Amino acid sequence: MNGQIYDTALYLRLSRDDADVDGGKKTESGSIKSQRDILRAYVQEHDDLQIYDIYADDGYSGVNFERPEFKRMMADVWNGKVNCVLVKDLSRFGRDYIEAGRLIQKTFPALNVRFIAVTDGFDSLYADRTNSSLILPMKNFINDSYCRDISMKVRAQQKVKRMEGKYIGAFAVYGYRKNPEDKNRLIVDDYAADIVRLIFAWKIEGMSLGAIAEKLNVAGVLSPMEYKKSLGLKYDTGFAGVMTAKWAAVSVKRILENPVYVGTMVQGKREKVNYKVKRSITKPQDEWICVKNTHEAIISEIAFLAVQELLKYDGRASGNTYTANLFSGILICADCKAPMIKRVNTYKGKKKVFYICQTKNKSMGCSRHSIEEDTLKRIVLSEIKKYFELLICHSDAAEMIDKMDVDYGRIAGYEAQIAAFQEKHQAYYRLKNGLAVDLKEGLIDQKEYGEFYHLYERKCGDLENAIGGHKKIIKDMLRNGAATCEKLEKIRTTRELPELDRELLVTTVRKIAVHEKKRLEIAFRFSDGR
User: CA-to-CA distance for 268 and 48, rounded, in angstroms?
Assistant: First the structure.
């Protein structure tokens, strides 16, 4: 020993694959404690070592060095605060043999930093040329190979589970929750599932993505991320900000496009570049793993397919209404395939509503293909009636009519949410009323009184709006549910269809192509197996 005292960094690491996680807040792993005890005992046995600091990366892979505590340790090394690094073994330091070898054999010697791996019996101060140039790289290579082998086995196991229709995501998709008896199976979350049904129903009614998001926010419905947090899940995402996450058009679209809601599990859309790189890439759609009927469907296949067609033309609300016109996303020009747009002419006090080709309207070619709305409605309703009559048998018709029904009956989740909002409202109301007493007793000053008063006042207002929004949703659900039941019963008993409305149109017709001279070409759903 040369008499030098080394300021020593004790570096500890445990990967997520090895750690015990309790499902909530992650506690320090027992293996980290074991490593710390071993390294402390080693320092006590060597008079030339003294602990500068302890750096513990609990839950981080060794395949790269993008670890917060490792980076903090290296910063202290570069700043000259640490001149000895002590680890339990080489695998705790890192499993990338190239980068680990560069640090141990080049960087540390250049900085006069001693490196010790206790259970591998390696100490750079006493290591001879053989240890440094042959044995050390070989151990690092073995560690790297081990990591690559584990990565391949994990990927293979995940693929098998996906092929079996087992859900392997960390969190269940909005509208579902993990089955407590089988974490790889999804079961319906009644409250969130009703929100999903409403989103699909509103889209079928003709609402735009932005209008749906706005309606959910006004009603105080928690966004998928905030809802997961409200359930006590430690949910984090790269899209999260400092403010409370709200519904947006992109989150609504993500729900409307997800086939999980018809009982189909789609996984394997993305994969990591390799076991050393965290970055993921999107795989081609033909490589996705899709398994049907893995869980209970929330949305009927008819409604889902109808919405996929409508998403190609995100209907915009007209005037002060939330909904688009009746034929939005359905009516196209037979020649140029552009949407037909609605126009209103007024002559001698009488309004005439008709549709013309969008391309012609922009003076970009094509021809008008004009057709009056009343004529269009009459022809389409007549053809839908014939369509029902041509179904193979009554049971087929009844089955299709049943699928058209959207279940609005379950309102218990909304009532529970209203009760939670009311409880929070009462709490803020009590806090607001208690501010005067706090001011009088000197617990707060006048400025704090004003700040807290406005804060609690705003919170109460937000909650009142949310309560009102949820009550309106319940009212709409009951009203629409009753109307739907009445309509379905009439169809079942009389075989007569009511007047043409958005739901009937979208769930029976895929496209209506308008030719010249008011000739229509109607593509019905399921006429070609879809």
Answer: 53
